[in-house]
Amino acid sequence: MPKLKEETQIARREQIATAAMACFARNGFANTSMADIIAEAGLSAGSIYSHFATKADLIRYAAAGLLEHRTQALHDEVESNGTVMNPAALADSLLTQIELDRNRTLLLLQVWAEIPRDSELGVVASENVGRLRSMIADSLGAWAAEQERGDAPDRAQQIALESADAIVALLQGSVVRMAFDPQAQAKHLRAGLAHVLKS
């Protein structure tokens, strides 16, 4: 069998990962078999196994892609705003982005559930959360400097980082709430957070 070009290999892995994520969304990680993924992808078993030796390898790859996609989407949302934002406004903006892709967002819960059993996935998740925290802190830098109103840039940076930690926790909590309560609307969560974070 001829070896695929690198770009073809990448595209094929993405095709398989997309099929896997569709199965995971429908049936969950535990209830999805490799046979399900093979059928969803429309490829041969040999093609699948030439890219992923085990279901765990495929879960790790697909989950890493999901984490990266979510982080990048939130990063793009912040970058596109371009104004000085306080924590309430930033949380509102990020929750709006989460709601736009609710199904993919809810898959994050399944990814998080795998982390205690998969240390490699845990490293990927930690890196993405760290990147998200830094991005949020950077976006809050101007606001934090206004709060300090003094000659203490280190304190302003600390305010931004602490606020970023709170926003990350609020985003994660909102994802859990949306999963547990299908009727939960992001706009209602945003309204509540606006009162809590109002500054």
Overview of the structural elements:
With 199 residues, the protein is mainly α. It has helices spanning 6-27, 34-41, 45-51, 55-81, 87-100, 102-114, 119-139, 141-148, 153-180, 186-197.
What is the strand and helix layout of this fold?
Layout: H1 6-27, H2 34-41, H3 45-51, H4 55-81, H5 87-100, H6 102-114, H7 119-139, H8 141-148, H9 153-180, H10 186-197
Helix pairs in contact: 1-2, 1-4, 4-5, 4-6, 4-7, 5-9, 5-10, 6-9, 7-9, 8-9
Provide a concise account of the structure shown.
It is built from ten helices and no strands. It is mostly helical.
Provide the gyration radius in Å.
20 Å
Strand content: under 5%
Backbone structural class: mainly alpha
- Major sheet size, sense and barrel closure: none
| Topology, number of strands | 0
Task: Extract low-pLDDT stretches.
Answer: none
Please state the average pLDDT score: 81
Q: H/E order of the elements?
A: HHHHHHHHHH
